[in-house]
Amino acid sequence: MIVLSEALKVNSSIQKILLCNSNIGCVGMIPFSEAIKINSSLQKVDLGENRIGDKGMIAFSEGLKINTNIKKYSNHKSP
Q1: Which pLDDT does position 78 carry in this prediction?
Q2: Element housing 17 (H / E)
């Protein structure tokens, strides 16, 4: 997830990322959340079927506070 997160920081064309069932977990959400703070092109994120947990979702919500371009995200069945 670190490599993907670093790529998202410099990518200016990706609009949608589907990470369903990719075993991100809380640890992976932290660098991903830092990346979405910087990426300005991302508009849709699907995190469904991952065990992100409370800390991961808190990190993600912090990223969403800064990145107002993300208009749609999903985390269905993500305890």
Answers
A1: 45
A2: strand 16-18
